Amino acid sequence: MRLILLGPPGAGKGTQAQKLVDQHNLVQLSTGDMLRAAVKAETPIGLRAKALMDAGELVPDEVVVQIVSERLDEPDCGNGFILDGFPRTVPQAEALDALLERKRLQLDVVIELVVDEDALLDRVKKRAAESGDNVRSDDNADALKKRLDVYRAQTAPLAQFYREKGLLKQVNGMAAIEEVSSEIDRIFVEVG
Ligand code: ADP
Asked: Tell me: the pLDDT tens digits for 58-90?
């Protein structure tokens, strides 16, 4: 199974992705995690990305496209993967199409976690409060607001992009974690 999880910051993509990894033996490809690792390791990409990430802005498309493309070539992706946090713009989605075609791979489904924005602010603030010393440098009110604005403007249009391709499935992300994951399981059965 090759899928994209779509949804704003705090929608629960990471939580659901982790469950899918455990249950279906898929690999989770989170561009946010990969970029945070690059920042921590102070690689050239990390040095370039840090200030943008801290401000809640997007890292340039070509940077993330490149890391995803390289990651997809690793053998553990052979059984399928979950893209989490990528693509985030229409040009990224177009680049993904092109690179999947080159690699002779097809997407099975795009699952959008649909959530209410007011509730998101609360969720992410709570996540920041609970993470103690491990707080992400972009989990503050300003950067979060910015991330939501960027999501609305640049990422939300991807739902229509994938709807037109017949790949979009929407799930109510406001439901309890277990309900969301059984909804996703139903989609897996349906998509096969
Ligand atoms: P969240 O979805 O909770 O905002 P992520 O962990 O997915 O957080 O991403 C954190 C930051 O990493 C983003 O705000 C952005 O700066 C950068 N980032 C992650 N994925 C991408 C992407 N596909 N394109 C551009 N920037 C990205």
From this structure: 999 999 999 999 999 999 999 899 999 999 999
Find, among 96, 99, 146, 104, the residue nearest to 121 by Cα: 146
Q: List the 27-30 sheet strands across, edge first.
A: 27-30, 81-84, 2-6, 109-114, 168-172
Is the CB of residue 84 less than 8 Å from the CB of residue 14?
A: yes
CATH class of the domain whose range is 2-191:
alpha beta
The protein residue with its alpha carbon nearest to ligand 1, atom 19, reads 32
**Omega prior to 75 cis, within 30 of 0:** no
Single-letter residue type at 96: L
Task: Give me the catalytic one of 2, 19, 125, 136.
Answer: 136
Over the Cα atoms of the chain, what is R_g?
Answer: 16
pLDDT value, residue 154: 97
Ligand 1 neighbours, Cβ below 6 Å, are 9, 31-32, 35, 52-53, 56-59, 64, 85-86, 88, 92, 138, 147
Q: Where are the domains of the chain?
A: 2-191
